[in-house]
Design goal:
The protein is an alpha/beta fold. The protein contains 8 helices and 5 strands. α1 (about 20-30) crosses α8 (about 160-174). The mean pLDDT is about 85.
């Protein structure tokens, strides 16, 4: 991984794209530490993301997300799962680009909708038209997601993405 010239690997993408699940498994494969920014926020506050949004609001959440993400993005030999909206934060984006090999997990909106339609833990989807909200969020974020070093489609099986990642990094190291 040293040939990448980056300190860590960062997964970006929409909620439900598989950043945490794939990031955690990939970190084990390459023997890196794994950090899930949303989980770290929940651990620090003792609240779920939904509770934070409901009680303290999205602005509070975004400030905490920035503080934690900027700290974690400086750590070497780590795989990091960023929250879907963190890509909109210029400070996070700049440090991510500087220190991380970024991987965008792209997922078709219909697949995201299917994965998220019954969730009650996603505050940005609460009491909203889920498909329309996902389309709007993706439209606002795609210009940043698409600047990733590697774009992989995760609309199907996670095992396919993990195989693609292994193949990509094995070939990169040669």
């Amino acid at each position: 991984m040293q040939k990448l010239g980056k300190k860590n690997i960062c997964f970006v993408g929409m909620m439900g794209s598989g950043k945490s699940a794939i990031g955690k498994k990939f970190a084990k494969i390459i023997n890196y530490r794994f950090f899930d920014i949303d989980k770290l926020i929940q651990n620090e506050t003792g609240k779920t993301i939904s509770q934070i949004f409901e009680i303290q609001g999205e602005d509070f959440f975004r400030k905490l997300e920035e503080k934690i993400a900027l700290k974690i993005l400086k750590i070497n030999n780590s795989v990091i799962s960023l929250g879907g909206g963190s890509i909109l934060n210029k400070s996070i984006r700049n440090l991510m680009v500087k220190n991380s090999f970024t991987i965008y997990l792209e997922v078709n909106i219909d697949v995201l909708y299917h994965r998220l339609q019954k969730t009650n833990i996603r505050p940005l989807l609460k009491n909203k038209n889920i498909k329309e909200t996902l389309q709007n969020l993706q439209k606002n974020r795609n210009k940043y997601y698409e600047k990733a070093n590697l774009i992989l489609n995760n609309s199907n099986k996670m095992e396919n993405v993990l195989k693609e990642l292994k193949d990509y990094f094995q070939n990169y190291e040669k």
